[in-house]
Automatic annotation (TrEMBL):
The lineage of its organism: Bacteria, Bacillati, Bacillota, Bacilli, Bacillales. Signal peptide: none annotated. One of its GO terms (biological process) is riboflavin biosynthetic process. It comes from Cohnella nanjingensis. InterPro entries: DHFR-like_dom_sf, RibDG_C. This is Dihydrofolate reductase family protein.
Length: 177
């Protein structure tokens, strides 16, 4: 199973946090939708999923309360066993095993920071898509590797692409060595 970590970073290199004072750029949201359509799934942290669901207007949700159509959505949670309309997994491995069993070959890791760091710490990331948003952030979250194993790990730049609205996309391959 190939995994793609998809994240927005700020121009000063933080893991971007969105909210009413810093809404996500429509170009980044469109890119996320395109990646999710291509993979047919996404894995998301419980906190980010609850924010996503609450941010969607009710008319756009289906009967199970999901605004995401027929995508296979896996919510990572240690606390919850089930949520309507999605599969709940208790660990990164369990999430990937579930999508494999459903026939997916690529999994999209959509955030937030805890979820991305859980996959990075377990060396379960094959590709990274960073969308750099034109904003500087005064607070900050970070993406981190397991410091007991890595001080640095090189990645291979595959592509750079402007998405419009000042957003630039960087795509990297991560080797599993
Ligand atoms: N920059 C971006 O691309 C991007 C994307 C998405 C979100 N965000 C930002 O990220 C922030 C939210 O991220 P967050 O770090 O607070 O939360 P999160 O990663 O969305 O969700 C955290 C929750 O996921 C579950 N979880 C995490 N690691 C786990 C593991 N190893 N095993 C099982 N469950 C696990 C836990 O759920 P339980 O508590 O239920 O056990 C944990 O509380 C917001 O500021 C949002 O704006 C940014």
């Amino acid at each position: 199973m190939k995994t793609i970590l998809w994240a927005t970073l700020t121009a000063n290199g933080n893991y971007a946090q969105s909210g009413h004072d810093n809404p996500p750029k429509k170009e980044a949201l469109g890119d996320f939708a395109a990646h999710a359509k291509a993979t047919g799934n996404f894995i998301v942290g419980r906190r980010t999923f609850e924010n996503m669901r609450n941010a969607s207007p009710a008319p756009e949700r289906d009967a199970a309360g999901s605004p995401f159509g027929d995508l296979d959505i896996v919510v990572l949670s240690k606390r919850l066993r089930e949520m309507p309309g999605v599969h709940v997994a208790a660990s990164p491995r369990e999430a990937l095993d579930y999508l494999s069993r459903k026939g997916h070959e690529t999994a999209l890791l959509s955030g937030g920071a805890d979820l991305h760091n859980a996959f990075l710490e377990e060396d379960l990331v094959d590709e990274i898509v960073f969308n750099i948003a034109p904003v500087l952030e005064g607070k900050g979250l970070n993406l981190l590797l397991d410091p007991n194993i890595y001080s640095y790990k090189g990645v291979r730049l595959l592509e750079t692409k402007p998405l419009g609205g000042g957003v630039v996309q960087l795509r990297y391959a991560v080797s599993q060595d």
